[in-house]
Specification:
mainly alpha
């Protein structure tokens, strides 16, 4: 199988996701409500509390990249639920009889989750501007931040597919997903700097890929400080590679 064949299969999975979104547009808008509330209510209230060190950045601006990533990561971590449902209804078997490699199928499905993330981000950002968030006025920075959100969402979707390959019921999958999502979010720099955490949690935070994505998006969208950007991109690339490989290897277990 050639590289072009694999790319064609990945784009087919992305097209499948776009078709789903076209027929269920309300899902994107309803999922955007929670992050908008985080910004409009939590962010606005906490911006009056001056106890959190944000290096001179207004608190509402500081948490905006974290809230954007939180909303997209939530979608990605539960993306495997679709896989579990497709297995139970027999749709997955029909997809797997297609002449496509498991590796291309997993990466295509994972990247398709990033498509949902992009649509969600594009809904939230105008609202953030309306409530007073100041973004760096640089289209290249903005585009790079969107790409980072896209790829990190794909990595978390691959993690979700890996978990889905081990869980045989939707109930078990939901339990694992909920157990993952809160530590990922709260042991990160989405709402506060990690230096405020106890030392033990700071060690855990080093292995949390979300902190690198938030740091990169915050530098590109809010502060304009790109000092850590190469390290952040390297960490995200390593995370995605590991997750794509693990999900591809375990994918066959989904239909056993």
């Amino acid at each position: 199988m050639t590289m072009m064949d694999s790319l064609r299969e990945m784009f087919a999975m992305i097209e499948l996701e776009l078709r789903r979104l076209k027929h269920d547009r309300a899902e994107i808008f309803t999922r955007a409500i929670q992050p908008i509330l985080w910004l409009a209510v939590y962010g606005t209230v906490m911006s009056h509390v001056k106890a959190i060190p944000t290096d001179g950045i207004p608190y509402l601006d500081y948490i905006t990249p974290g809230v954007l990533l939180q909303s997209t990561i939530f979608v990605s971590v539960f993306y495997g639920l679709t896989i579990v449902w497709e297995r139970e209804t027999g749709i997955l078997k029909k997809l797997l009889v297609a002449p496509a490699s498991r590796y291309a199928t997993v990466i295509g499905r994972s990247i398709a989750s990033g498509v949902r993330a992009i649509f969600q981000v594009l809904i939230i950002i105008p609202v953030a501007v309306l409530i007073g968030v100041n973004f760096v006025p640089n289209p290249l920075y903005f585009f790079t931040a969107i790409l980072i959100i896209f790829f990190v969402s794909g990595g978390f979707a691959a993690l979700s597919i890996f978990v889905a390959s081990l869980m045989k019921t939707r109930e078990r999958f939901m339990g694992i997903g909920q157990a993952l999502i809160m530590p990922l979010f709260f042991v990160s720099n989405a709402l506060y700097p990690i230096k405020l955490m106890p030392t033990v949690l700071q060690y855990f935070a080093i292995f949390n890929p979300l902190i690198y994505a938030v740091d990169a998006a915050r530098g590109l969208m809010i502060s304009g400080d790109l000092t850590n950007l190469p390290y952040d991109i390297a960490a995200i690339a390593i995370f995605d590679t590991i997750m794509f490989a693990a999900a591809s290897i375990s994918f066959r277990k989904i239909i056993e």
